[in-house]
Amino acid sequence: MSDYTLPFDSIGSADHARVGGKCASLGEMTQAGVAVPPGFAVTTDAYKTMLEETGLCGEIEKQLARTDFDDVDSLDRSAQAIQVRFRSHHLPAAVEEAIRAGYEGMGADMPVAVRSSATAEDLPDASFAGQQDTYLWVVGAHDVIEHVRDCWASLFTARAMKYRHDHDLGQIDVLMSVAVQKMVNARAAGVAMTLDPLTGDKTRIVIDASYGLGELVVSGIVTPDNYSVEKVLMEVVDRKISDKHLELIPDAKAETTVERVVAEDRRKAQCLSDKEILAVAELAKRLEKQNGCPQDVEWALDADLPEGENLLALQSRPETVWSQKPKEKPKSAYATGMAGIVGALNNPIGAKN
């Protein structure tokens, strides 16, 4: 490809500055042999070229200088103004050509997901996930190019700008790569955490799952099934089956995704078999080992692939809540025993109780 696009199988964690957290993770998984929908990254070089050749960088800096980040109205006005400026510019010709070539190399009119991959995203100390946009079932080079620009513009939503301001991340310093990835026809999808998100218990893998694409789970619109797997023995130790009333599915004729009401007999049925639950858990466990820390994994079961080959990893990023909490030093038996002796000496009457 070019300086502006890189296939997933050629990138890894060392390329984080050029492809952002999401694409670097997709590249690492691809190179490790994990099943990942194929695709390519539009690099931060493309984003920087867009800013520089169109004059956007100067326009953004002027707008930021007028922004009061503690005033909601001021922040909203600036965000809207910057996004309007983004969408008023065409991408530089060389960038457009690179994206077009990358997309057409995937196959004629391949439906793809266009997903943001910021350089501050998916870092262990920056809970940046969900700050930028994702576009599903995008077809045709023209639309892919338009949605790449939309992803770049989403770096300047009020929410994202406020987040960067509050976390001392430079507004211009955070760069944006974009993942262009083959669309998954998901029968079921969700997230898997390699620790219990409620307790921090690292002996558990906790899986949320629902029908269709995972966006309704991630956004909280659907309450998913919840499965807990013991990490060493790989046994399902708990399950909570929810009323999954909606599913998000691809509509090939409409070239988009649509929400569909789930049939009554499926709504309260377990959406994954126990075999599939354990397969998702194994995938999450493998990615935790590969990355060396607890992971938050997005996955999907592709209805177009045969059983046993249909589990795909869509994203793996470090867990950012429990992993950042200070570790408590365990009390040694000696310290506990000495405390008891001292307590008894100071309060001999109480020690007899």
Describe this structure as you would to a colleague.
The chain is α+β, with helices and mostly antiparallel strands and 353 residues long. The protein has 2 domains: 178 residues, Dna Ligase, domain 1 (2-Layer Sandwich); 138 residues, ATP-grasp fold, B domain (D-amino Acid Aminotransferase, Chain A, domain 1), CATH 3.30.470. 37% of the residues lie in helices and 23% in strands. The strands form 3 sheets. Strands 9-8-7-6-12-13 form a 6-stranded antiparallel sheet. Strands 1-2-5-3-4 form a 5-stranded antiparallel sheet. α4 packs antiparallel against α6. The longest helix is centred in the C-terminal third of the chain and has 18 residues. The N and C termini lie far apart (77 Å). The C terminus is likely disordered.
Explain briefly what this protein structure is.
The protein is an alpha+beta fold. It has two domains: 178 residues, ATP-grasp fold, A domain (Dna Ligase, domain 1), CATH 3.30.1490; 138 residues, 2-Layer Sandwich (D-amino Acid Aminotransferase, Chain A, domain 1).
Write the layout of secondary structure elements.
Layout: E1 5-7, H1 16-31, E2 39-42, H2 44-54, H3 56-65, H4 72-87, H5 93-104, E3 112-118, E4 134-138, H6 141-153, H7 158-166, E5 176-182, E6 186-193, E7 204-211, H8 215-218, E8 225-230, E9 235-240, E10 246-251, E11 256-261, H9 264-267, H10 274-291, E12 295-302, E13 311-318, H11 333-346, H12 348-351
Antiparallel strand pairs: 1-2, 2-5, 3-4, 3-5, 6-7, 6-12, 7-8, 8-9, 10-11, 12-13
Helix pairs in contact: 3-4, 4-6, 5-6
